[in-house]
Amino acid sequence: MYDGEMLRWYYRRYNKAGPMMHAAVDAPQTLFLIDNVVNGFSLHRLEDGACICTYNTNPVKTFHNTVVFGDWATLVVGGSDTGTIRIFDKMMVPLSKYCNMQTGGRVQTVMTYDSPQQPDFGATSTNDAEPTISIWCRKRAISPSDRPLGSEVKNLYGE
Fold first, then answer.
1. Which sequence spans correspond to the domains of the chain?
2. Helices (H), the chain
3. pLDDT 10s digits, 28-58
4. pTM
5. Please, what CATH class does the domain formed by 23-155 belong to?
6. How far apart (Å, rounded) are the C-alpha atoms in residues 57 and 85?
7. Whole-number Å distance between alpha carbons of 77 and 151
């Protein structure tokens, strides 16, 4: 993706902006997420690459951040350059939750795991040569489809 246009084979030859950023594809292979570096994470249709929406993260620096689907692809979860994990409801553009990992610094890797009991989020950071790993879990309602968006996200380790 570059300026909203799909670039297929031309990327390696003509792109002078640096490496492509992080991307994730949902399980049914209909949507994909990218960290567009400029203003946040973008959700696109895999079929034609059309941008569905952008989740604005107001990045301080233009480092790439990991972005993944969570809770059976109902959430967009991504890292940041400010020490937080940002969690968005896929259908709502405003920010839903922050998970504080550290004071400042970059969250380099984000992962999610969807267990039947609860979705889990994890992140790593190696800022100032001090490695940090944090894991959060979110209480789930009876089924993933009727979980309340405002359900609590808590840090299992640290803080």
1. 23-155
2. 11-14
3. 889 999 888 788 888 999 888 888 988 888 8
4. 0.68
5. mainly beta
6. 10
7. 15
